[in-house]
């Protein structure tokens, strides 16, 4: 798909409630940034940084996004070169045939160990490594190892349940594969 065709599709998908819901999403991002920054300031050797892509390699399931997250992600996708975007589209299409228990994120640049849409990534990617879900604990096993070793006793974790409730107020989430299929006719 050419960039201009993508732009037209992107424009056609704009929701009239976008401003209100986008503002909510931006507020959620700001809340997450505040928690993340507080944790990082108190723990300068925090593991989440460029080059650590373990979580992007072993997603438990295909990412699920609200419409606002998808709209924001499209902002990032449209900034990529058509070649890279096409590669991502193919990666997403391949997810439906995956055999491994884990999902490798289709937006991961494996050679650079970096997210290709970092500024536009979904909320789950922003909280992973910094937030805890009361009934499930920490998502990141690497950080959990440090917690178990007693290294991170003073960390005030974010509450994933609160974030999930806030995201829920934006509407239902859909699988990334479904968003791509609806937009790119996979
Ligand atoms: S959540 Fe875990 S695997 Fe992901 S970047 Fe942070 S430390 Fe690395
Ligand atoms: S969108 Fe980016 S940060 Fe999130 S799982 Fe994919 S590569 Fe990792």
Description:
With 186 residues, the protein is mostly helical. It has one domain (3-174). Helix content is 52%, strand content 8%. The strands form three sheets. It has a three-stranded mixed beta sheet with strand order 5-4-6. A two-stranded antiparallel sheet has the order 1-7. Strands 2-3 form a two-stranded antiparallel ribbon. A hairpin with a 4-residue loop joins strand 2 (108-109) and strand 3. Helix 5 crosses helix 9 (176-184). The chain is globular, with a radius of gyration of 17 Å. The mean pLDDT is 88.
Helix content: 40-55%
Number of β-strand runs: 7
- Put simply, the count of helices is 9
Q: Termini distance?
A: 11 Å
Order of strands, widest sheet: 5-4-6
What kind of sheet is the major sheet? 3 strands, mixed
What is the H-and-E element order? HHHEHHEEHEEHEHEH
What's the short story on this structure?
With 186 residues, the protein is mainly α. Helix content is 52%, strand content 8%.
Topology readout:
Blueprint: H1 3-12, H2 18-42, H3 54-57, E1 64-65, H4 67-79, H5 82-95, E2 108-109, E3 114-115, H6 123-127, E4 131-133, E5 137-138, H7 141-148, E6 158-159, H8 160-168, E7 174-175, H9 176-184
Parallel strand pairs: 4-6
Antiparallel strand pairs: 1-7, 2-3, 4-5
Helix pairs in contact: 5-9
This protein binds iron/sulfur cluster (2 copies).
The site of one iron/sulfur cluster has 8 residues, from loops.
């Amino acid at each position: 798909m050419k960039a201009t065709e993508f732009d037209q599709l992107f424009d056609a998908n704009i929701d009239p409630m976008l401003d209100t819901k986008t503002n909510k999403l931006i507020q959620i991002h700001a809340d997450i940034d505040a928690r993340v920054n507080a944790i990082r300031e108190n723990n300068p050797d925090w593991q989440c940084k460029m080059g650590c892509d373990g979580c992007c390699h072993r997603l438990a399931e295909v990412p699920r996004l609200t419409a606002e997250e998808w709209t924001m992600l499209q902002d990032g996708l449209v900034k990529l070169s058509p070649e890279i975007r096409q590669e991502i589209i193919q990666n997403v299409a391949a997810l439906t045939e995956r055999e491994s228990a884990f999902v490798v994120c289709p937006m991961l640049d494996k050679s650079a160990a970096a997210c290709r849409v970092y500024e536009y990534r979904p909320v789950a990617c922003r909280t992973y490594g910094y937030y805890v879900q009361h009934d499930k604990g920490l998502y990141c096993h690497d950080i959990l190892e440090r917690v178990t070793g007693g290294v991170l006793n003073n960390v005030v974790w974010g509450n994933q349940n609160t974030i999930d409730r806030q995201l829920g107020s934006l509407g239902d989430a859909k699988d990334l594969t479904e968003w791509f299929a609806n937009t790119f006719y996979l």
